[in-house]
TrEMBL record, chain A:
Keywords: Cell inner membrane, Cell membrane, Membrane, Sulfate transport, Transmembrane, Transmembrane helix, Transport. This is Sulfate transport system permease protein CysW. It is found in: Cell inner membrane. The keyword Transferase does not apply. The gene is cysW. It comes from Geomonas paludis.
Automatic annotation (TrEMBL), chain B:
GO terms for molecular function: ABC-type sulfate transporter activity; ATP binding; ATP hydrolysis activity. NCBIfam families: 3a0106s01. Keywords: ATP-binding, Cell membrane, Membrane, Nucleotide-binding, Sulfate transport, Translocase, Transport. Coiled coil: none annotated. This is Sulfate ABC transporter ATP-binding protein.
């Protein structure tokens, strides 16, 4: 089976391949592009962050406002990711394994945050929960603060990040079909056993991939959070907002030091994403050879 | 356990999969649901399993109402066309699955599970592959694992959905004989779906022929093959030639021949269709006596032990197909373009209205 596949690939490669100079040209153009727009800025972030030395870098990170921003970012991610994980699995399950009226509408809804500008997403929440908004007066009466407070930041982040996990899982679960679950049911497994022992092992790498992407976006979201946060230093600033404030105050080294945290997060995300993508590809091709 | 299906109907959107189907499967029998795709056979199987629920009608297990029972409570073993093995589990874990998900009270001990799985592995002759993953097995091996997995929970009913459909011809043949022997050993009531008439004829105790959501005929393989109840069954089982003509008070006139058709004794000069199986057409050099049609040999093809002969009836351009054993063909020494006589040995005549 494997030998056959390789053979096919080789033959295909031999007949459609381009001359060497075309290949090298294309590869070098792609690499140059990546270097210019990705590697260079990333390197610049770290260079700037460490410009005044390691001591200054650490000092910038230890600044109370920065620590508070890191804490808020972590809290936001810690609330958003599990909620979106739950929502993502439920939605993907419903879409991939059942047919029901309104299914394509649900898929469109899940994609909505992708197509709406984050600033607009933030404004939606201001419209609903702000002082002039629909629920504003009622919230004020009961002394509940949502806009310009942590709940608003969390709500806006959930909205922006909710497609990530669902979008990752839907195609994966669709490719796997329902037969394994049906087999588990006929063998006497209940719903929870079926999920934990049959469905979950097949989608775990997809889940990890989705969680990583969702987490990166939750920590890095700027637009929507910026609208609802109110930029209160030491209380409603997340890491991206803190970077902007420091930058606007001309403390470049500090701004880049904080920004380097997000850049590091991006690198970790990339690494985990590569591994989980590779693992996921393996599960999918295993599913295909089984057919 | 016996299964009884009472007036079951099922539709998916605008497509009607089953129309008022009733069927009894006696305990311990191996029954084939045979039909073309879209005939409703798989839907019926899934309804028996509880994977689909009927729009109307009832399912009885051993005379007890089971329509509302959950899949898990029905104690059915289900074997899927594409095996549906758990791809992340070894062969051993696949087979053990049904035992390990039992509630604590009724779950066998680890040692009991191990013994049971090893017995099943012996039964399917894959003892040394217990630690392999499904992707490392051949199609035939996977399907045997799927069968062992279904048998591990000691189901009251075994349901198989085109179990050999995804396998190549030789493995299919081996596996269906193996299934027949297995059934003779364990005698669990079994229903299997197939669109392969040969498979149904060879394996099943009884055959249920389905078409467009209805049962056309049910009976033993020889009943269904020798006495097809409807033109559809005739057409579906084996290759067959069609003759158009008329039937009047028990005598059919087809292709210039007068044939007796006692089952249509009451027909009054009605249009009719006659069916003759390819192997029921004899080829003769000289057409002495009546009952043979003059024809020209158009094409000869050897298929293993048989020779297929395409004949063009003289006086028309209709082609019929005959199948001869090879030695018979050798004796006749047929040549393309020769004049011969074709004699239908057996013809079944249906009055045309019947078809509509």
């Amino acid at each position: 089976m494997v030998g056959k596949g390789l053979h096919k690939k080789e033959r295909k490669g031999a007949t459609v391949t381009e001359p060497a100079w075309v290949r090298w040209l294309l590869i070098s153009v792609a690499l140059a592009f990546l270097a210019l727009f990705l590697v260079l800025p990333l390197a610049a972030v770290f260079a700037q962050a460490l410009e005044k030395g390691w001591e200054a870098y650490l000092a910038a990170l230890k600044e109370p406002d920065t620590i508070s921003a890191i804490r808020l970012t972590l809290i936001t991610a810690a609330v958003c990711v599990p909620l979106n994980l739950f929502f993502g699995i439920v939605a993907a399950w419903a879409i991939a394994k059942f047919s029901f009226p309104g299914k394509s509408f649900l898929i469109t809804l899940i994609d909505l945050p992708f197509s709406v500008s984050p600033v607009v997403s933030g404004l939606i929440y201001v419209l609903i929960f702000g002082l002039q908004g629909w629920l504003g007066p009622w919230l004020q009466e009961h002394d509940i603060k949502i806009i310009f407070a942590v709940p608003g930041i969390i709500l806006a982040t959930i909205f922006v990040t909710f497609p990530f996990i669902a979008r990752e899982l839907i195609p994966l679960m669709e490719s796997q079909g329902r037969e394994e679950e049906e087999a588990a049911l006929t063998l006497g497994a209940n719903g929870l056993q079926t999920f934990l022992r049959v469905t979950f092992p097949n989608i775990k790498w997809g889940i990890l991939y989705g969680v990583i992407l969702c987490n990166a976006r939750a920590m890095g979201e700027f637009g929507a959070v910026s609208v609802v946060s109110g930029h209160v230093r030491g209380s409603t600033n997340t890491i991206p907002l803190q970077v902007e404030i420091l930058y606007n105050e001309y403390s470049y080294a500090a701004a880049f030091a904080v920004a380097s945290l997000l850049a590091l997060l991006a690198l970790v995300t990339l690494a985990v994403k590569t591994v989980s993508e590779w693992k996921m590809q393996q599960t999918i091709s295993a599913a295909e050879t089984e057919r | 356990m016996s299964i009884e299906i009472q007036a079951v109907s099922k539709s998916f959107g605008t497509f009607t999969a089953l129309k008022d189907v009733s069927l009894k499967v006696p305990s311990g029998e191996l029954v084939a649901l045979l039909g073309p795709s879209g005939s409703g056979k798989t839907s019926l199987l899934r309804i028996i399993a509880g994977l689909e629920s009927p729009d109307s009608g009832r399912i009885l297990f051993d005379g007890e109402e089971a329509t509302k029972r959950q899949v898990q409570e029905r104690q059915v073993g289900f074997v899927f066309q594409h095996y549906a093995l758990f791809r992340h589990m070894t062969v051993f874990d696949n087979i053990a699955f049904g035992l390990t998900v039992k509630p604590k009270k009724s779950r066998p001990s680890k040692q009991e599970i191990r013994d049971k799985v090893h017995n099943l592995l012996k039964l399917i002759q894959l003892e040394n592959l217990a630690d392999r993953y499904p992707a490392q097995l051949s199609g035939g091996q996977r399907q045997r694992v799927a069968l062992a997995r279904a048998l591990a929970v000691e189901p009251q009913v075994l349901l198989l959905d085109e179990p050999f459909g995804a396998l190549d011809a030789k493995v299919r043949l081996e596996l269906r004989r193996w299934l027949r022997r297995l059934h003779d050993e364990i005698h669990v009531t079994s229903v299997f779906v197939t669109h392969d008439q040969e498979e149904a004829l060879e394996v099943a105790d009884r055959i249920v022929v389905m078409n467009e959501g209805r049962i056309e005929q049910e009976g033993t393989p020889s009943e269904v093959y020798d006495r097809p109840a409807t033109p559809f069954v005739y057409d579906f089982l084996g290759s067959v030639n069609l003759f158009h003509g008329r039937v009047h008070e028990g005598t059919a006139q087809m292709a210039g021949l007068d044939l007796s058709s006692p089952e249509n004794a009451s027909a009054q000069d009605a249009p009719a269709v006659g069916y003759v199986r390819s192997h029921d057409i004899a080829i003769e050099r000289d057409g002495n006596g009546s009952g043979a049609i003059k024809a020209e040999v158009r094409y000869l093809l050897s298929v293993g032990p048989l020779v297929r002969v395409d004949l063009v009836l003289s006086g028309s351009d209709r082609t019929i197909e005959a199948e001869l054993p090879r030695d018979e063909a050798d004796r006749l020494q047929l040549q393309v373009g020769e004049q011969v006589y074709a004699r239908p040995r057996k013809m079944r005549v249906f009055v045309e209205d019947y078809q509509i």
